[in-house]
Amino acid sequence: MRYGIISDIHGNWEALHAILEYLHAEHMDRYICLGDLVGYGANPNECVGQIRSLTDRVVAGNHDWAAIGKTDISSFNVYARQAVLWTSGTLNTLNRTYMERLPLRYSEEDLLFVHATPDVPELWGYVLSPYDAWGVLRSLEQWMCVIGHSHYPVAFSWDRKEKVQVHPPCLTLQKGWKYTVNVGSVGQPRDGDPRACCGVLDLDQQTIEVKRVAYDIQTAQEKIRRAGLPEYLAERIARGK
Ligand code: ZN
User: Fold this and answer.
1) How far is ligand 1, taken at its centre, from the CA of residue 163, in Å?
2) CA of residue 233 relative to chain centroid, distance
3) H or E stretch at 225
4) Nearest to 117 by CA among 169, 210, 180
5) HSE-CB for 58 with a 13 A CA cutoff
6) Cα(186) to centroid of ligand 1, in Å?
7) Which residues of 135-169 are buried (b: 16+ CB within 10 A; e: fewer)?
């Protein structure tokens, strides 16, 4: 069983298209989307429509909730706030209704999928350090928790005895251990590599890997500018930071 796992698309149609082309060619058995379908990018309706037809295994992110008025945006920075308001005014009724029904967690095959943290996902906490990961792993009922939200691909493992270890997000998995893995962002990577990012989890090979796919950044930038979204958001996707 191979899972194609995508997160933090953020309305970037060009990035989503390139990632799905890659994953389709690699023959995934299932697709999971970890939320933040919208926000920042200029194609929220197109991206939500694509995910709706791709898979039922989708959880909500903070930008999804923000765009439909379900979460407070006072902690959002000025660019994120402008993008939320633009996205909210752009989403069609069908997509809005769909987003209202998205769950915060999804679980199958001893795996848990969530945008932020599993215990209180609606607080939109980050898992950035081994200490953060320990908070997740010690109470995790499943073997692995796959997350997004920080746009920074990284894996944490715990053998249930010693300290939590931090790894690049390409690793062989052991039974009896616990894992939390961030699969990075499709539409707005922040780890210095501007290529679109996704995860491939192979339960037969017992591996999880992050993959990078080049896409047409220029077109995505032009659309952001044409939509009147902040210039910073166009520049950011080219920097990957
Ligand atoms: Zn995000």
Assistant:
1) 28
2) 17
3) helix 217-226
4) 180
5) 23
6) 9
7) bbbeebebbbbbbbbbbbbbbbbbeeeeebeeeeb
What's the 176 CA to ligand 1 centre distance in angstroms?
31
User: Which of the 8 DSSP states describes residue 96?
Assistant: H
Beta-carbon count within 10 A of 129 CB: 13
Chain-centre distance for alpha carbon 127: 13
DSSP 58: B
Half-sphere exposure of 164 toward its Cβ, with a 13 Å CA cutoff? 20
Alpha-carbon 219 to chain mean position: 21
Cα–Cα distance, 10 to 177 (Å, whole number): 32
Quote the mean pLDDT of the chain.
Answer: 97
pLDDT at residue 29 above 90? yes
CA distances from 149 to 36, 122, 125 (A): 8, 12, 9
CA distance 199 to 196: 11
pTM for the whole structure:
0.97
**Ligand 1 centroid, distance to 36 Cα (angstroms):** 5
In percent, the amount of the chain with pLDDT more than 70 equals: 100
pLDDT for the residue numbered 72: 87
Query: Does the pLDDT of residue 196 top 90, yes or no?
Result: yes
Contact 149, 62 (CB under 8 A): yes
Report the pLDDT averaged over residues 71-78. 90
Query: Is the per-residue pLDDT at 162 higher than 90?
Result: no
Query: Does an H or E element contain 89, and which?
Result: helix 78-90
Taking the centre of ligand 1 as the mean of its atom positions, its distance from the CA of residue 3, in whole angstroms, is 20
- Say how many Å lie between the CA of residue 28 and the centre of ligand 1: 23
d(CA 91, CA 87): 6
